[in-house]
Design brief:
single chain, alpha/beta, inorganic pyrophosphatase (n-terminal core), Diaminopimelate Epimerase, Chain A, domain 1, 2 domains, 6-stranded parallel beta sheet, 6-stranded mixed beta sheet
């Protein structure tokens, strides 16, 4: 199956098909790293290529190489340009997501396009919309998968310092800088090669972890001091942030990234959640430790979401208070009352 995928992609690249790369809404480090790296690789092969993001991209990723090449479908001019590009596309690469239905209007354009679709993704339960699919939950990051594709194409000589930086950064964000239990021997093998190609771990760590502005750090402190709650005998920690509280700290898109992981520093915590009121919905992030608490299924069943076993996201269209009550009730499926 994988060899068929490689053969298909090899032909598409060799024929220099007009290419569009698309990722999921509110792209994170892995989504941006894999998409921009694949864009740069296609350009190095002489392909016409464009990268479209369904939404605005968080400014904490603007240090990534080729960041300015991203077209935001959320902007008026970006939507117009993206629509024109998609109309001419011969192949659409779908990276770090597996359900075009979640892209809303952009997803409709992709679904209606006659272009060949290619999926490279590591999330569970993929939709069957692509002509060529590389979907495998055993990979820690889509960046890791993109490297493997380039390697199987025998094109690692095309991995520049910029591409290495993008792929390494995406792998770092999805493995917690190689601390999470998805850090496999292949992850470390790929990382070592990317270092040889010019990725600088100290620089990438600095740009990901140590670029907080004052109001973001203050918001983290406020949440941990005033909003953190423990339940289920101290096994679950969660934070509920209202729109008013978020506005108070003048947060920008992406400023809460990583907050959901902080409660794991408390001994005994096995699961964390972060709820943020955004417009008419409450956005939710779930995290867990070990191999017993499935956040993917939890998010799918109760919060219209999904993702990975230990990390997933979802949403609620209830009030913050109602969402909290729903969450606490849903926790009984994971931590039955004795």
């Amino acid at each position: 199956m994988f060899q068929e995928f490689i053969s298909g992609v090899s032909q598409l690249v060799a024929e220099k098909k007009r290419s569009v790369i698309v990722t999921h809404r509110q792209p994170d480090g892995d989504a941006m790293g894999s998409s921009l790296a694949w864009w740069a690789f296609l350009k190095s092969e002489g392909c016409e290529a464009h990268f479209i993001s369904p939404t605005e991209i968080t400014r904490n990723l603007d240090w990534l190489p080729f960041f300015s090449e991203a077209i935001s479908f959320e902007q008026k001019e970006g939507k117009k340009k993206a629509t024109e590009i998609l109309a001419q596309a011969e192949v659409i690469y779908c990276l770090d997501f597996n359900a075009i239905s979640r892209l809303e209007e952009l997803g409709t354009l992709i679904a209606n396009s006659s272009a060949a679709k290619v999926m490279i993704d590591h999330h569970r339960e993929p939709e069957s919309f692509a002509a060529f699919t590389f979907s495998d939950i055993r990979f820690a990051a889509t960046c890791e998968m993109v490297f493997d594709v380039i390697e199987k194409l025998s094109k690692t000589d095309k991995i520049s310092k910029e591409i290495a930086t993008l792929l390494y950064a995406g792998m770092c964000t999805d493995t917690g800088f190689f601390q999470f239990n998805n850090t496999s021997p292949n992850v470390l093998r790929v990382a070592s090669i990317l270092l040889e190609k010019g990725a600088q771990p100290d620089y990438i760590s600095e740009m990901v972890n140590n670029i907080f502005h004052e109001r973001r750090l203050n918001f983290f402190g406020f949440c941990l001091d005033k909003k953190l709650k423990l339940t289920c005998g101290g096994k679950v920690a969660y934070i509920m942030a209202s729109a008013k509280e978020i506005k108070r700290f003048h947060l920008q898109n992406g400023d809460s990234e990583g907050l959901v992981n902080y409660p794991f520093k408390i001994k005994g915590v096995e699961m964390t959640a972060y709820f943020s009121e955004e417009g008419e919905k409450v956005k939710v992030s779930f995290r867990s430790r070990g191999n017993t608490l499935d956040m993917n299924q939890f998010a799918r069943i109760f919060f219209e979401g999904g993702g990975h076993f230990n990390a997933s996201g979802g949403k609620s269209f209830l009030s913050v208070e109602e969402t909290e009550a729903k969450f606490l009730e849903a926790l009984e499926t994971l931590f039955p009352k004795q």
